[in-house]
Every structure is written in C-alpha cells, then in structure tokens.
Design brief:
- By secondary structure, this protein is α+β, with helices and mostly antiparallel strands.
- It is built from five helices and twelve strands.
- A twelve-stranded mixed sheet has the order 1-2-3-4-5-12-6-11-10-9-8-7, sandwiched between helices.
- β7 and β8 form a beta hairpin.
Length: 252
C-alpha cells in the first residue's frame, strides 16, 4: 500500500499542521501547499502507516520556468522524500526541484540532478534598512497582481525587482538586472523599492542568493538583509528509471 496520497483541493488545509507560519524556513513550502492557485498545483501527502501525516510535496506551475513545474517537498525523512518524488515525478519529464541543501544525497537516490544552484536564504532586518530614493524607479504589476518595480530604458527594462511568491507573513523577492547596467546602482534601487513596499504591508521580505554571488550578498547586506543560515538547492531533476540504494556523492 502506497504511503503517499494525492490531495484534493479541499483537503490542502490538512497540511497546515506541519508548518510553522512564523518560520522563514517553512515559508516557501507553506505558500505552495496552502496558497498557490489550486488549479496550478498538485499536492501529495506522505502518511506512513500508523504514523500520521509526516510531509508533503507541492508540484506547481509557475512563471519561474514555463516548461518545467516546480517541485517543493517538505519532509524530514529520507524514505519520505523518496516516496514523494516517486509519486509526483514522471519518467522522462523534468521538474525544477527545490530542497534543503542537506537533502541532496537523498534526492540523488531516486532522481538525476543537473544545473544545481546552491543558495542561502536572507531575511530582512528593518532596523538595518537603508532608504534609497531613485526617481527612475517606476511601479508596475505582475500578471497575478503582485507589485513589481523597474528602471526602464528605451529598449526595455534594465532592472526589475518583484516577487516569486507572497504569503501573509513572508514574500520572496527576485532581482533581474541587465548585464550592461550592472555597477550603476539600478538593482539596489528597485530592490529597495519592493522591500519598502512589503514593509508597508507588514510582510517580511526574503531574498535567496547564490552561494557564489559575493557581490549580490554584499549589496543585500548593505540594504538590510541578513543571512539566516538556511541553505537550499534548486536544480533540474528527472526521475531515475532504476533508483540507486547507496547515497550518491556528486551531481549527474
């Protein structure tokens, strides 16, 4: 008997008991499990026999990758991650997988991973906020109604900051800067604008930064973001046709 069952939209509230709504570490999984539009997410619950609900996986259609759904497992056991990935992924169909960095060896047992992007989550400290006013920054709106701030040129946007997802307590920022415009402070300006907007809405901004992007980390800390020590891995994943039993040590 399978230890994973697919939840109906009306059942997604069952997952709330696993989540700490005040935890930055839980916030992304909480958004996709409880708040992402129900017609764009499939939810899988891990419930071992006689053990109760122990974890879940959200498989969501997002604007982050138009060709691959985003898979966000939330489970603390190797067996649970294995069961959830086998239930949610389909052979030959890659996904964007987002997991705690320490769970990479577990994922490698059942999935081939590539294009790995290790990162650390930063959380905003209001007491350290440095106000930046740039008259070139304009406000716009994403297709789902979330705010977005841009600096534009005649041929398009040269810097933009918006939201990957937004819940009642936390929201995760993204920043995109044209390589030709780097070093001119445009990225910091739009990032400050979206941060200020979230503060006004009493939502705590989160910002995920690649481990090897030292310049971005300095810029974020100067603006008022502090590292949380929460390390994650985002990568492309495809279910293995033959799962391996021993922990793998390197990416495929």
């Amino acid at each position: 008997m399978s230890e994973v069952r697919r939840l109906q939209p009306a059942e997604r509230g069952e997952l709330a008991v696993l989540i700490d709504e005040h935890s930055a570490a839980d916030s992304m999984a909480a958004y996709y499990a409880l708040l992402h539009p129900s017609d764009r997410v499939s939810l899988f619950a891990y419930q071992p026999t006689r053990s109760g609900l122990r974890g879940f996986l959200a498989l969501a259609q997002t604007g982050l990758d138009l060709f691959r759904p985003l898979a966000v497992p939330f489970v603390g056991q190797r067996a649970g991650l294995s069961e959830l990935l086998r239930a949610a992924l389909r052979p030959g169909r890659p996904v964007v997988l987002h997991i705690p960095a320490e769970q990479r060896p577990w994922a490698l047992e059942v999935a081939e991973l590539s294009d790995a992007r290790p990162a650390e989550l930063f959380r905003f400290d209001p007491k350290r906020f440095r106000t930046i006013v740039n008259v070139l920054v304009v406000e716009s709106q994403s297709p789902n109604g979330w705010p977005r701030y841009e600096i534009r040129a005649a041929d398009g946007s040269v810097a933009a900051a918006g939201l990957n997802w937004k819940g009642p307590s936390f929201a995760e920022l993204y920043l995109a800067v044209d390589p030709k415009a780097k070093g001119r402070g445009f990225g910091t300006s739009v990032l400050a604008a979206i941060t200020r907007r979230l503060i006004e809405e009493k939502v705590s901004p989160l910002y995920r930064l690649a481990d090897d992007d030292l310049a971005a980390r300095v810029e974020a800390e100067d603006l008022g973001f502090v590292p949380t020590g929460i390390h994650t891995l985002t990568c492309h994943a495809m279910l293995r046709t033959q799962p391996i039993t021993a922990p793998a040590r390197s990416l495929s």
